[in-house]
Design goal:
binds NADP nicotinamide-adenine-dinucleotide phosphate
């Protein structure tokens, strides 16, 4: 299918810094092309002091929608007209902005994308489960809220920087009293019970960061492991999980799901979108 660009083309994009690593243009442009939509998706590297100008530009130029990535997911809230979902407001970070006639609406599709990936790739249902989340950054926030909303029984948070981990446990625990959310001072404080799931939300394992988020020998073998990192496709941590026979998945599924949910918010199109995005990624080499 020809991907035409003319004076009626709708513009979408992503604001972040750095942005060259982003796979979002590949995912969204593949769908526009395949569905014959007169739209294009571009990556914009925005300086921190220009974020407000970027959103003004979005309104002025009629850019239909953008994704927001590191480091702007929280700051973006300052420039939006509304964040319609209660949970997204609690999370305090957005990754998707919809422009409806000059009004900017923010959403966070990372959490739902993560829960869907657990179902699809690990046949994992969160309700009643005990989960260890490693990390307490922006992605961890979306993950912990999504797990609590989906009915996790207990969530343990482990993080290199204590204040950040404690803060996340206290903040989310305050909103989900029915889930036991606790910060672990050290992995030795984990109760001696087999965990259902361990999730890495740190950037350990990403190209250039060779640290392991957790030494598998320090805990009982969990029932499943999920790594938000997707580049490289198999981090050293997931390789070890594989050797131990722990069912595991990397963050590509979550990446595709959050993108497909964003695409639906912008265009109302859902049918076939994830399949096209997955196919586009199958040509991408880590
Ligand atoms: N698959 C997806 O769709 C998806 C979506 C969002 C994010 N991600 C990935 O998730 C990761 C985190 O993103 P983010 O937005 O949460 O970043 P962030 O806000 O910068 O948080 C980074 C987290 O990693 C921890 N960390 C970094 N280096 C570490 C190290 N060497 N040892 C121990 N902990 C370390 C940090 O601990 P401190 O608090 O101690 O600094 C913090 O908890 C990135 O790899 C990102 O690509 C994937």
């Amino acid at each position: 299918m020809e991907h035409k660009i003319d004076s009626k083309t709708h513009l979408y994009g992503i604001f972040g810094n750095p942005i060259e690593h982003s796979l979002s243009p590949v995912l969204h442009n593949a769908v526009f092309k395949q569905l014959g939509m007169n739209s294009v998706y571009m990556a914009f590297c925005v300086e921190s002091e220009s974020l407000g100008l970027a959103f003004e530009g979005m309104r002025a130029l009629g850019i239909k929608g953008v994704n927001i990535t590191i480091p702007f997911k929280e700051d973006a809230l300052n420039y939006l007209d509304e964040v319609p979902e209660d949970l997204d407001r609690l999370i305090g970070a957005v990754n998707t902005v919809v422009n409806k006639d000059g009004q900017l609406f923010g959403y966070n599709t990372d959490g739902p994308g993560f829960i869907l990936a657990l179902h699809e790739e690990l046949s994992f249902r969160v309700e009643g489960k005990d989960v260890l989340v490693i990390g307490a950054g922006g992605a961890a926030r979306a993950v912990v809220f999504a797990l609590a909303k989906a009915g996790a029984e207990r969530i343990f948070i482990l993080n290199r920087t204590r204040e950040r981990g404690e803060g996340l446990a206290e903040y989310t625990g305050g909103h989900f009293p029915e889930t036991d959310i606790a910060y672990l001072e050290s992995i030795q404080d984990l109760p001696p019970k087999k965990l259902d799931l361990v999730v890495n939300t740190t950037s350990c394992g990403m190209k250039g960061n060779t640290d392991l988020p957790l030494d598998w020998t320090l805990i009982q073998k969990p029932k499943a492991a999920y790594d938000l990192v997707y580049s490289p496709a198999q981090t050293p941590w997931l390789k070890e999980a594989g050797k131990l026979g722990i069912p595991h998945a990397n963050g590509l599924g979550m990446l595709v799901n959050q993108a497909a949910i964003a695409f639906g918010l912008w265009t109302d199109k859902k049918e076939g979108v994830r399949g096209i995005m997955k196919e586009a990624l199958s040509h991408w080499k880590t």
